[in-house]
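B., you asked whether I could sanity-check this one before it goes into the benchmark set. Here's the sequence:
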Amino acid sequence: MGISGRSLALILVMVVAACSPRPVAMRAVPDPAATIVPVFGVSGRRLDTGGSLFGNDRPQEVQHFRIDVSVPPTHRPGRIAWPKVAPDAATDFVVTEAGVYPDARALIADMRRTVPGQETLLFVHGYNSTLSEATFRMAQIITDFEVQMPGVLFAWPSAGDPRGYLYDRDSVLFARDDLERTIRDLTARPGDRVFLLAHSMGSHLTMETLRQISLKGDRRLLDRLSGVVLVAPDIDPDIFARQAEVIGTLPQPFLIFITQRDRALTFSGFITGRKPRLGVIAEAGEVVRPDVQVVDVTDLSEGGAALNHSVPLTSPTAISLLNAVMTRAEREGRGLLRAVAEQLPLIPTSPR
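And here's what the prediction gave me:
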C-alpha cells in the first residue's frame, strides 16, 4: 500500500527534525528583571546531558535534582525562548543554579521549604523530549499558569529523538515503577496530595502506572491524587478503556484535552495501525466513562506551532482562557471540572 501525501509530509518533517540540532539548557548570570522558577525533578535518565539519549542504555536508578530556571522579562505565554548564540537571562530561558539530591527525602524537604504547600504538581512529559526541553517546559507551565504549588518534573528515559518512537514506548513500561514510587514519595505525609499533568506518551505512562497501583489494591494511594489532566494523550482508545476499567473510579477531576489538528498524533496513528489516538478522537462514543471529561481545544490552536501537539500548554489563547476559568472557579469556590464544563467546548461522554 502506498504512503499518502499527508503521511509522507509528516515523515519528512520527522526526518528533518532528527537531523536538526536540539537546543540544550545553558547556564547564565541572573537578570534582576527575570523570574526564577525552581523546577524539582525525578529523572530516569542520565543528568550529565540535556540532549538526546537515543541508543543509550536506560539507567537502573532514578536521580533527584533541582534546576532553577530563569524566565526572561520578555517571555510570551506558551513560548520557550532558547538562546540563539550566547545565553542571556534578559531574553532567554537559562539555568541559574542546579544541584542533585541524595534521595527523594532530601528533594521533598527542600521543595517544601522553597514552595510551601501539601499539594504538588507532577508533570510527566511526552515522547521525543530531552531533559532540557522537559525542564524548560515545566518552568513555562508554572509561569504561564501561575502555579502556586511546588512543581516536580518526572523525566522518564525518552530517547529525545524523533526516530525513537518505539524506544520511547518501551521506556514507558520501563518507567512505571519509578513513577509509582515518585507518587508514593510525594504523598507520604498525612494530607499530601498530587495533581498529575501528563502530555502525549506521558499520558500512557500515567495510565499504566495508575493501573499498576490499582492492581496492587492500593486505593489509598489513588485517593491521594487531587486530579489528572491528559494533554494530547498518545494512547489507543481501546487501551485507555481497559486501563480505566482496571483503575476503577478515576481521580477527580479527570480531564482529557484533544485537538483535531494534532499532526504529531496523526503520525503516531499512522505508524501504530492507522487508528486515531485518544488525543484526536471525534466522537463521544470513543470514551464511555461518566468520570471523564473530554475537552476539545481544536479552535484554540494557533498557527500549527509544535505540530499542534500541546495546544493547552502552548497556545496563548488557550492559556488565557484556562487561567480565567481556573481563577473564576477558585474565586467562586467551584470545582475545576464544573468550571471547565461551563466555559470550554466539551465532548460529552456516555455512561458505562
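One thing to flag: The two ends are 38 Å apart (CA to CA). Otherwise nothing jumped out at me.
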